[in-house]
Amino acid sequence: MDELEVTGSPYGSAPEAIARTLRFALEIVSDGIWDWDIRTNHVRRSPGWYAMLGHAVDSLPENVVTWHEVIHPEDFERVMRGFQAYLDGTQPVYAEEYRCRCRDGDYLWISDHGRFVEFDGEGRPTRMIGAHRNIHERKLAELALQQKNQELAELNLSLEALVAARTEALHQANRALAEQVALAMRLSEIDPLTQVANRRGFERQLQAEWHRLQRHGHPCALLMFDLDHFKRINDSLGHPTGDRVLVAVAEAVRQDLRDVDCFARWGGEEFIVLLPDTDAAAACALAERLRLDLRRIDAALPMQLTASFAVGEMRPDEDPAALVRRLDNALYLAKRQRDCIVVC
What we know:
This protein has 344 residues and is α+β, with helices and mostly antiparallel strands.
């Protein structure tokens, strides 16, 4: 990773900074972390895991049974087969998607990835670490799209029986259904709260811009920002107020962006912007404008709203995933000071 430029106090010793950066990066890409001591069957879970399912931290027994009890009954057998296959060595990875029961009784779609990290002297695994990620909105969109496709297939079967007599009617029905499927696909790439792109839509645009850089060499920059102390807003004023703040932030940022820019809600209170034909200097100038604009948002809050920013320029020899990791690391440094911009 290149040297990070930031204005402010030192970050602490190098080992401490590296450990914090790695821990923060893992928390950024997941919503909950679990750590299973295979010998004792003790399972330690991060505060994010409890928060994702609506539980108080450390309020559930720290064992494998707790995991079994939150898995949806319809998903349990499939998840156990995949998990056991990894434990037996017949599958190289453990990665599953399933529903978890929240404290209020509702179910949340999550992705679960894990791997062995420690072994005893005879090569037997003694520790496994994994991460859960909230994929509920994406999964619901995918299921809705599958349902649309199934309806389309079923309707086509019935219409094809009448094709000889009603060819034109069939064409019209197919066109209408294709438009519905296209609409469902577009909706699956939109964040339902803020109406900006979601992570899925942004990643598709990022890949396209990266390929454009490879072909033509046009500059492209990204900026990522996170609202400071947003948890305080949700905890003290309630989630409806937090949602109103996120909508207001999205509307304010959109006013400073071009039509060609891709603005997305990356997750929670974190946002990301793709800036085609833009270098790092121009992106920094935009980040500074946005930083000041967000301070002026009138969201009827008892405290001033601020945000921390990370800015980076796309490089031909760096793939999109590495670029996002570089931004994540820079944003972590910015969040340690709050209300500042870090260039990476």
